[in-house]
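Lecture 7, part 2: worked example. A protein chain together with FE2/S2 (inorganic) cluster.
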Amino acid sequence: MKKLISLTVNGKSYQIATEPNQTLADLLRYELGLFGTKKGCEMGDCGSCTVIMDGKPVNSCLVLAMQANRRSITTIEGLESEKGLHPLQQAFAEKGAIQCGFCSSGMILSAKHLLDKNPKPNEAEIRSAISGNLCRCTGYQKIVEAVKGVRG
Ligand code: FES
Ligand code: FES
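Predicted complex, written out as structure tokens:
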């Protein structure tokens, strides 16, 4: 039976009826049309579905929509402002850290979480922060360079 939940996504409040087995990833994509959140493995392995929930990165394929009740979610769509792309989005594009782009949303959100709590991470800290995000294309070096280019 569907249950009504309230949540904030990218600063906007929603009330949505969700099935008990609906994941947060599916709610974001199919109820809210936020297709920037990708679904790869749907088993918590690849990190492509990473979003930030109440300040912490989570694999949204492993979070039930009901668990997001009264929570605040940031997806990749929430990073861009009227000023334009978020510096991380800009750096990923400029440094060649995006190839197919499937990992990029999750990767950027993991990097954002790192920089929010540690504005000057070293390379080991950057690699650790994105260790839950798999990329089949870039070999990670350009991703690390992009994050380095944004750190304070
Ligand atoms: Fe969620 Fe892979 S789709 S971790
Ligand atoms: Fe293709 Fe990372 S850019 S998986």
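The chain has five helices and five strands. The longest strand covers residues 3-9. Keep this in mind for problem set question 3.
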